[in-house]
């Protein structure tokens, strides 16, 4: 701790010690500098950044595809998959494809989507509610955990 000193004096002290004058906190008033080996300082900063990156959790977007005429057992399988994805902390995209005359019965598809949303209640919530895009109905769920 040298206190507040002139830049020229700080540079002279760093040169005498055979080290570098490194500005640690440029936004402080006055700016905070340290006399240390710059290459060692950069190496330590890089190690800290790598360690933080390792601990970071990435959120993936998983997809579950269903149809308006999906039978009960198949629906339960898709529901289990969606619940497993939500427990793992991932987002789930539920997509329903309408073919041919199914487009005339989009209300059946909406009922299936609302049922799925009710079944995953407690694990996840709808980021984007069911909406129709062309021949598909899409809903995005995210984990509440």
Biggest sheet record? 4 strands, mixed
What is the H/E string? Answer: HEEHEHEHEE
- Envelope shape: rod-shaped
**pLDDT averaged over residues:** 90
Residue share in helices? Answer: 40-55%
Structural class: alpha+beta
Instruction: Work out the number of β strands.
Output: 6
Q: Uncertain segments of ≥5 residues (pLDDT<50)?
A: none
Number of helices: 4
Rg computed from alpha carbons, rounded to a whole number of angstroms: 29 Å
Strand order of the largest sheet: 3-4-6-5
Regarding quaternary structure, what we see is single chain
How far is the N terminus from the C terminus?
46 Å
Strand content: 25-35%
Question: Can you give a write-up of this model?
Answer:
The strands form 2 sheets. This protein has a 4-stranded mixed sheet with strand order 3-4-6-5, with helices on one face. Strands 1-2 form a two-stranded antiparallel sheet. Helix 3 links the parallel strand 3 (61-66) and strand 4 (91-97). It has 145 residues and is of the alpha+beta class. The longest helix has 18 residues, at 38-55. It has helices at 7-17, 38-55, 72-87, 106-119; strands at 20-25, 32-36, 61-66, 91-97, 124-133, 136-143.
Which features characterize this protein?
145 residues, single chain, alpha+beta, four-stranded mixed β-sheet, 4 helices
Summarize the model shown.
With 145 residues, the protein is an alpha+beta fold. Helix content is 41%, strand content 29%.
Would you spell out the secondary-structure blueprint of this structure?
Layout: H1 7-17, E1 20-25, E2 32-36, H2 38-55, E3 61-66, H3 72-87, E4 91-97, H4 106-119, E5 124-133, E6 136-143
Parallel strand pairs: 3-4
Antiparallel strand pairs: 1-2, 4-6, 5-6
């Amino acid at each position: 701790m040298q206190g507040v000193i002139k830049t020229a004096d700080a540079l002279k002290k760093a040169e005498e010690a055979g080290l570098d004058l490194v500005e640690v906190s440029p936004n402080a008033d006055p700016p905070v500098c340290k006399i240390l080996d710059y290459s060692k300082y950069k190496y330590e900063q890089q190690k800290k950044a790598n360690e933080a990156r390792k601990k970071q959790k990435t959120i993936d977007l998983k997809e579950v595809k269903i149809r308006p005429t999906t039978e009960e057992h198949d629906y339960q399988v898709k529901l289990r998959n969606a619940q497993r994805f939500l427990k793992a902390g991932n987002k789930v995209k539920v997509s329903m494809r309408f073919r041919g005359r199914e487009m005339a019965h989009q209300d059946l598809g909406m009922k299936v989507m609302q049922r799925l949303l009710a079944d995953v209640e407690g694990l996840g919530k709808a980021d984007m509610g069911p909406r129709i895009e062309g021949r598909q109905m899409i809903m995005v769920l995210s984990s509440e955990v």
